[in-house]
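ping. complex inputs:
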Amino acid sequence: MTISSAVAGHGQSTSPSLRSRFAKNFARFLSSPLNCFSLGLTTLLFLLALLAPIIAPYPYEQINPANSLSPPTWEHIMGTDQVGRDIFSRVLYGARISLSMAVMTIIVGLASGVFVGAVSGYLGGVADEVIMRVVEVFMSIPGIILALALVAVLGPSPLFIVLALSIRRITQFARVTRGAVLGVKALDYVAACRVIGMSNVRILFFHVLPNCIGPIIVLATVLMGNVILLESTLSFLGLGIQEPTPSWGTMIAAGNELLTFAPWLSLFPGGFLFLTMLAFNLLGDGVRDYLDPRGASVI
Amino acid sequence: MNVVLQEPPLLEVIDLKTHFPIREGLLGNTTGHVHAVNGVSFTLGKNETLGLVGESGSGKSTLGKSILRLVEPTSGDVRLQGESIVRLSKKQMFRHRRQAQMVFQDPYSSLNPRIPVGRIVAEAMSVHGLAPAAEIRERVEELFGRVGLRPAQTLCYANEFSGGQRQRIGIARALALNPSLIIADEPVSALDVSVQAQVINLMMDLQQEFGLSYLFIAHDLAVVAQISRRIAVMYLGRLMELADRNELFRNAQHPYTEALLAAIPIANPSKTRAPGKVLQGDIPSPRKLPSGCVFHARCPIAVERCKVEVPEFREIGSGHSVACHLRG
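pong. complex structure:
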């Protein structure tokens, strides 16, 4: 009696809500300075993008031919372009475009990819084989070629760019999710759910998927940087966002010919692209180390 | 003369076979089968405990899972209260899920780490609509109290509990549906010896209180002997011997049972074991079953006949069955 009550008494001090568990985990995540830095930088970038209309000193499309190709001055802290548009304002609006397109791409890719991968992994058998072979067909085409071809066919509207970018993400999320589902579905508590008589839909979405979330979050964070770079590449090649809407890729391309004469044209959007990539890649590494200490194998 | 209608036993397993196909090569051709369970028959009455022992790879866990159709049996029949369940559709099976539940071996992987343990137990009740939502919480707390946990602990997550406590939660989940049969798949193998005794005592108390029947799977004869009235010995997918506990310990017939009994540690260092009783080698692969008696390769008394002819599982005394040409 005494032993059993002592054993049963253990673990009484804690009955934490989900919120306090989250707060504790978040504090642990921030205990690494690198994580603080990357999270701070990504937050700053999102804030700049969100508040662009307030922060930007000029409308992004306002031309001023009299003051074209001005180097950085106090009036135009990043200089102006060939038609006198303020580069700083355009970089801020470009962040808006790049980040929102990347977020949408990740959302589309994650939602569809997780669904496809989860169903494939959970069902197994022939369905799994067929779905994964289709996924592999898409994976065998280099991402940029696939996106270029799709945008060339469909046209460079934001919707189609997001679509073109997300197809490859769907396959990546599908593979990662499938792997995680295969691991989780072999656990005894899934068998317990089946013995109770739960439906497969309930088991998959309430019991299996919530335990696969770690690698999925990691992939989403890492892919943010990739997608932003890919979108900029499309824009650089002229198949992305079209003028006059600013995008980092088109801005870099526009400054390409004047690189020696007016380097600020490409330097500032390029610098922001670099910082964004750095922030998301570091954040992705940090999240992976935190959530999935086994290593980089998931990507 | 009145016809006495005999109530069917709670659980009848008739010549149950579970084979897994081995797929190899690019096209996944079936090149053979793993004979995990290979023709097992037994019955289990109300309020009774049948212990099932055997070494790793003997198919005892697969047998337990096949009975609950966690693994689909290849052939044979399982009857719950006289009704065959092996060919029921998923929907029809749902009704029968309430009657038979399972307690798992690994207390760490058998509880969802992201859901408070109280909700794990509550979900079982709500899926079957056993009680209105308002009552479920009360019943879960009551159940927690019954298995030796505190009602407040229903809000905790699985990682806040020790192995023994987790196993208590697993038992509470199994009890949530108020079943008559619980298949316990090595429920104490992963626990410390002191905690093993607590969990076994708890299971015995619960059996009294709720009138449960157990199929208690273990690889440790000493543990099984504590809780079971009857014991079945399994080897390579087949039952070798089935007898009352006392009969089995006093009068084991099968050489494999003898070897298992001889392997129970003696709590006296000055006593030594009779030589020659301890088995050599490993259990053969169930991919390629030995001909004849599956035990002949390791059997100390095997003769030519054992290599050719499969021994019948036959009754040699009241409730004592054995599968051996030479004994009984």
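Chain A is about 70% helix and 0% strand.
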